[in-house]
Structure formats: structure tokens, C-alpha cells
Automatic annotation (TrEMBL), chain A:
Keywords: Annexin, Calcium, Calcium/phospholipid-binding, Metal-binding, Repeat
UniProt superkingdom: Eukaryota
Pfam families attached to this UniProt entry: Annexin
GO molecular function: calcium-dependent phospholipid binding; metal ion binding
InterPro entries according to UniProt: Annexin (IPR001464), Annexin_repeat (IPR018502), Annexin_sf (IPR037104), AnnexinD_plant (IPR009118)
Descriptive protein name: Annexin D2
SMART domains assigned to the protein according to its UniProt record, in alphabetical order: ANX
Binding site for Ca(2+): 43, 45, 47, 87, 273, 275, 277, 315, 317-318, 323
PROSITE patterns, sorted: ANNEXIN_2 (PS51897)
Signal peptide segment: none
GO BP term, pick one: response to stress
Cited SUPFAM superfamilies: Annexin
From TrEMBL, chain B:
One GO BP: response to stress
InterPro entries in UniProt: Annexin, Annexin_repeat, Annexin_sf
Keywords: Annexin, Calcium, Calcium/phospholipid-binding, Metal-binding, Repeat
Keyword Calcium set for record: yes
Domain of life where this protein originates: Eukaryota
Provenance organism: Abeliophyllum distichum
Protein name, UniProt field: Annexin D4
Pfam families: Annexin (PF00191)
Length: 335, 314
């Protein structure tokens, strides 16, 4: 009796193998032999095999992941993300989910999530608005329309108040000029304006917000260099007046994101890892959103500042499949 | 043609919008010196008697004539441009010629989200700055926040509207307007600006409707105290009525050049969009058809070009 069942089960598994192999080979363009070896392990247990998921998804670029999602949907009539959702758990799940989304959809998802939760959310909105290129920011706003049937600025302005709203809404609405041209006269005069407002402790002044939220990144960089030349301190030093002031902290982070994003990301990673009990949301967010963008420079900054490679720090602080996924992502460019 | 008719024709040829090229060629071209002198002596508006015993062109009229002769060229160039370049140039002009807040509001609010985005990108290419940079830098005073936010907006354009939110926002606006009661501070009310600047157009039309139910008046009528907010609401909720109003104001006698330019701008930018509705609104409000009015006040090639655009049937 048992043997009969095993035979039937074996044949069923075989046919599933074949379908799966064809599917993966078609969409990922790897040799069938390689996929055979991988696929054998997928049905080894009763549940999904996280190692294989990492192996298949982590080393694909955005265009390939998109193709995998589309082929999966066409073949099985289900969204790959939904299926993964029901199989995986918390941190690992979130990392895989975020990684599988298109970059602009991912940013839209994170931004929307950030308008729903409490204080930490202002950071995410600022981070996304300031570290993406003008083009990517526009794509994100478009994806936001499609997914949430509202505009990003609607939600951000509705869920923020006071100085935070004053700063964040223009940041997400901006379409900054992306050229390298810099007007030195303007840089000098605007550095003076910034210094004036800071001396008056008018950190939320219209002029200060105007300069930071409308000028191109190169222009801001030039202005801040002029600030340093003329007044002796880097602007962020002068903005350290009150360590308890959330708005000031956000303002300093905004400036950092606009001028040296790798340092910002290094700091975010460092704080996330060193925090008592790791801030997984921040860790996942930074690793997933930067893996295809800027990870090499962030790793260099991290090593320089912390004297340990990022990979070791992550390995020391996380475990299991979540750890493996993160390590695969930060090593992405070498894969 | 009788002499007095000819005088009348040439006077008209030099008045209004554009110049009547045909009359100028056929009549003025064949006049002898004495006939031209009669013309100069006869028209007090264009010529003044100089102390050294000759009739001199009035300088202001010569300058105005330059605008009139160029009106056709300006319309053609504007019409031929890519829509994005056109809007970018209109925005830039509005900033350095004024600034003309009404034009900024008009362009920012009556274009679709994609069109406005295209214009912003074209602005990058043309002027090496972002439009929000220049607006923020060039506009001072309380209206700056409104205008910067309007040119930066990328409104949702789908059909979904949350009626509950629209109702509560209409209620809020009603309260805010009553509370402000005529003073200028309404534009500094962050919540009022937030609603107008971020919500989708369909949502705002719903807010307009709920406002009427709550307070009995139209939202734009109650915003009489603040010109910029009023124009914003009109452009967002009832653009065709807004355009027909501006057209009528620009075609009155003796308006200045800046107002006159609105005619070219509106007709060229709306010819492909909603000219039909604008014509209906115009007819409904002012009792005369728009083409007839244009026939009346405009001349020559410029008139013919405008009439062609207006007749296109969009």
C-alpha cells in the first residue's frame, strides 16, 4: 500500500519538478542543469526552502526580478509576493517582499507605510525624498498614484503637522534641477541667509526651508561649502543647539542626505545594529533600497567608521535566513 | 472707397488686437502725401502736433504698434512649440514680467499632472533651474508657499474620491472662511493651503459641491477677500468659466499690454483642450459668441489665426 502511494507521490513530484525547472529556466535564463540541482531541494521539506529563495532572488537585478514576477503570475495565476507572504516569517519575509518589488513601488510602499506609523516615519519620508534622484522620485510619485489612489503629497501633508509638514511636503514635491552648474554668487548670499536664520534660532524660517527644498543638490553643496568658509563651522555643527529637538535632528539628517548620503546610510546602519535589540526595519530598509544603488560606498564608509566590515557586523547581530538574505544583498555586486 | 471710409478703415487697422495688413497695404500704400497728412492731422490719438510745425507719432502708440505687429508672430511661435516648452516659457515670463501671479496659478492648476511635470522638466532644460527654485526665489510675501506648492504638485488623477474626507474638508473651509472674515490671513492658514494644493481635482470638485450644501454659497465667491485663493479654486474647479472671464476682461477697450497678452495665451493653450466649453461659457455669460467678439476687436492675420484656432471644434 505504502509503496503505491510513494510511487504516485514520486511521479507527482517529478512532474512538478519539471514544470518548476522549465519555469525558472525560462524566466531566469540559467542552464537547466543548474536549476535541476537547485529545484531538487525545494521539495525536500514540507515547507518552502528559504535558501533557494535567497539563491534565486537575491542575485537577480531589478529587471530580472520583474520578469520572474510576471512569469510566475502568468504561469500560476497568483502574485509571487502573496505566495511568499503566506510561507515566510517576519524579518526575512519583509526583506524578500521589499526586494522583489520594483524600486519605485518599493519606495511608494515604504513612504505610504511611513505616513501611517508614528514618529520614526518622518525619517523615512525625508530619507526617500532626499536620497533618490529627481527621476526616481517622480517614478515613485507615479507608482504611489497607481497603488494608493492618492498623491504622495496629499498623504504626507495630511499626516504631518507644523514644522515637519513645512519641511517634508516640499521635499517630496520637489523636482530638483540635476545639472552640475553652480552659481557662486548665489551660494555666497544664500550661505549668509542660512547663517542669519540659524543665529536667530529661526530653524523653521521660510527662507531656510526654501533653500533646502528647492535648490539643486550641487547648488546646496556649494552653498554649504561657502557657509563653512565664511563662518568657520560646518552647518550641521551649528544646528546642534538642542539635542532633544526632533525637528533639528531631522533638519541635520536632511542636509546629510542631500550632500553625503553614504555617510547618512552608514550612520543609520550603525545605529540600527548597535541599538539594544537591532532595529530590523531600518536595517532591512537601508540594505534593500541601497543594494543596487550605492552599497559599495556605504560598505567602505562603514568599514572606515567602525573598523569592522558591514558583513561581519550584520552577521554578528542577526541570524538565520534573515541574516543570509541581508548578506547576499550587500554582497550583491560581487555575485 | 470714400475718403472718410478709408480714414476709418486705417484707424481701425491700427487699433485693437493685431493690425489689418490688407487695408494697410491697399489703402495706405496708395495714399499720396496730402492724404497721409490728412490722416495725421485727423487722428488726435496717434499723432500730436509738434511745436516745430509737424505732426509727430505719439511715442506710446509707436510702442504699442510694435506689440500689435508682433502679436501674430507671437501667436504662431507659441502655437508651434511643444506644449511643455510653451508652459515652461509662460511660467518663466510670468516670473520676470511682474511677477504675474495669475499666470502662475493658471498654468499650475489648469494643466494635467503629466503636462505640468513635462513643463517642469522642460524648465530644467531651458533655464538650468527648477521652476520651484525660481518661484520661491522670485515671490515674496505670504503667497509664496501657495505658489511654490502649486507648481510642485503632482495630483492624483484617478476617479477615486473619499466623500467623507471631502465633506469634512468642506466643513473646515467653511469655518475657516467665516473666521477670517475678509482679512488677508486666509492664505497663511496651512490647512486651507494644504487642501487646495494637494487634493486631486475630482476631490476638490466634490469639496466645492459639499461647501455649497453647507454654507449656501459658492466657494470661490466666498473667497473674494483673497484673490490668489479665489483664482486657485476657480482654475481647479471651473476652469472654463475662469478662462471665459479672463478673455472678456482682456478684450475690453483700453486695457494694458499685459492683459491683452492673455488672449493669445488662452486661445493657443486651450485650442486643443476645452475651447468648445469655453465658447459655451462665454456665450452664456456675455451674450455674444466668442468668434464674433474676436471679429470685432482683432485685425488681419492675427484675427484670422485666432478664429481658425477657436473654430477647431475641440
Amino acid at each position: 500500500m505504502a509503496r503505491e502511494y510513494l510511487k504516485i507521490w514520486g511521479r507527482l513530484l517529478e512532474s512538478i519538478f519539471r514544470h518548476f525547472i522549465r519555469f525558472i529556466a525560462r524566466c531566469a535564463e540559467i542552464s537547466k542543469a543548474n536549476v535541476m540541482i537547485c529545484a531538487k531541494y525545494i521539495f525536500a521539506g514540507w515547507g518552502t526552502n528559504e535558501a533557494l529563495i535567497i539563491q534565486i532572488l537575491a542575485h537577480r537585478n531589478a529587471a530580472q526580478r520583474k520578469l520572474i514576477r510576471e512569469t510566475y503570475a502568468a504561469t500560476y495565476g497568483e502574485d509571487l509576493l502573496k505566495d511568499l507572504d503566506s510561507e515566510l516569517s517576519s524579518d526575512f519575509q519583509r526583506a524578500v517582499l521589499l526586494w522583489t518589488l520594483d524600486p519605485c513601488e518599493r519606495d511608494a510602499y515604504l513612504a505610504n507605510e511611513a505616513t501611517k506609523r508614528l514618529t520614526a516615519s518622518n525619517w523615512v519620508i525625508m530619507e526617500i525624498a532626499c536620497t533618490r534622484s529627481s527621476h526616481d522620485l517622480f517614478l515613485l510619485r507615479k507608482a504611489y498614484h497607481a497603488r494608493y489612489k492618492r498623491s504622495l503629497e496629499e498623504d504626507v501633508s495630511y499626516h504631518t503637522t507644523g514644522d515637519f509638514r513645512k519641511l517634508l511636503v516640499p521635499l517630496v514635491s520637489a523636482l530638483r534641477y540635476e545639472g552640475d552648474e553652480v552659481n557662486m554668487m548665489l551660494a555666497k548670499s544664500e550661505a549668509k541667509i542660512l547663517h542669519e536664520k540659524i543665529c536667530d534660532k529661526a530653524y523653521n524660517h521660510d527662507e531656510l526651508v526654501r533653500i533646502l527644498t528647492t535648490r539643486s543638490k550641487s547648488q546646496i553643496n556649494a552653498t554649504l561649502n561657502q557657509y563653512n568658509n565664511q563662518f568657520g563651522n560646518a552647518i550641521n555643527k551649528d544646528l546642534k543647539a538642542d539635542p532633544e529637538d526632533d525637528y533639528l535632528t531631522l533638519l541635520r539628517a536632511t542636509i546629510k542626505c542631500l550632500t553625503c548620503p553614504e555617510k547618512y546610510f552608514e550612520k543609520t546602519l550603525r545605529l540600527a545594529i548597535n541599538k539594544l535589540g537591532t532595529d530590523e526595519r531600518a536595517l532591512t530598509r537601508v540594505v534593500v533600497t541601497q543594494a543596487e544603488v550605492n552599497m559599495q560606498r556605504i560598505k567602505e564608509e562603514y568599514h572606515k567608521r567602525n573598523s569592522v566590515p558591514l558583513a561581519r557586523a550584520i552577521a554578528g547581530d542577526t541570524s538565520g535566513d534573515y541574516e543570509k538574505m541581508l548578506l547576499a544583498l550587500i554582497g550583491h555586486e560581487e555575485a | 472707397m470714400a475718403a472718410s471710409d478709408e480714414l476709418g478703415a486705417i484707424t481701425k487697422a491700427f487699433s485693437g488686437f493685431g493690425v489689418d495688413e490688407k487695408s494697410l497695404i491697399s489703402i495706405l500704400g496708395k495714399w499720396h502725401p496730402e492724404q497721409r497728412q490728412t490722416f495725421r492731422k485727423g487722428t488726435r490719438d496717434f499723432f500730436i502736433q509738434d511745436e516745430r510745425k509737424f505732426e509727430r507719432w505719439d511715442d506710446r502708440h509707436v510702442i504699442q504698434l510694435q506689440h500689435e505687429f508682433l502679436r501674430f508672430k507671437h501667436a504662431i511661435v507659441l502655437w508651434t512649440m511643444h506644449q511643455w516648452e510653451r508652459d515652461a516659457r509662460l511660467l518663466k515670463e510670468a516670473l520676470y514680467k511682474g511677477p504675474q501671479h495669475n499666470v502662475l496659478i493658471e498654468v499650475a492648476c489648469t494643466r494635467s499632472s503629466e503636462e505640468l511635470l513635462g513643463a517642469r522638466r522642460a524648465y530644467h532644460s531651458l533655464f538650468d533651474h527648477s521652476v520651484e527654485e525660481d518661484v520661491a526665489f522670485g515671490i515674496h510675501g505670504p503667497e509664496r508657499k501657495l505658489l511654490v506648492a502649486l507648481v510642485s504638485s503632482y495630483r492624483y488623477e484617478g476617479p477615486k474620491v473619499n466623500e467623507e474626507t471631502a465633506k469634512s474638508e468642506a466643513k473646515f473651509l467653511s469655518g475657516a472662511i467665516k473666521g477670517a472674515a475678509g482679512n488677508k490671513n486666509l492664505i497663511e492658514n496651512d490647512e486651507v493651503v494644504r487642501i487646495l494644493v494637494t487634493r486631486s481635482k475630482l476631490h476638490l470638485i466634490s469639496v466645492y459641491k459639499h461647501y455649497k450644501e453647507i454654507s449656501g454659497n459658492n466657494l470661490d465667491e466666498d473667497l473674494e477677500g483673497d484673490l490668489y485663493l479665489q483664482e486657485t479654486v476657480q482654475c481647479l474647479c471651473k476652469p472654463q468659466a475662469y478662462f471665459s472671464k479672463v478673455l472678456d476682461a482682456s478684450m475690453r477697450p483700453n486695457v494694458d499690454e499685459i492683459k491683452k497678452e492673455a488672449v493669445t495665451r488662452i486661445i493657443v493653450t486651450r485650442a486643443d483642450v476645452d475651447m468648445k466649453q469655453i465658447k459655451e461659457e462665454y456665450n452664456h455669460k456675455y451674450g455674444v459668441s466668442l468668434p464674433n467678439k474676436i471679429e470685432d476687436v482683432a485685425n488681419g492675420n492675427y484675427r484670422d489665426f485666432l478664429l481658425t484656432l477657436v473654430a477647431r471644434g475641440y
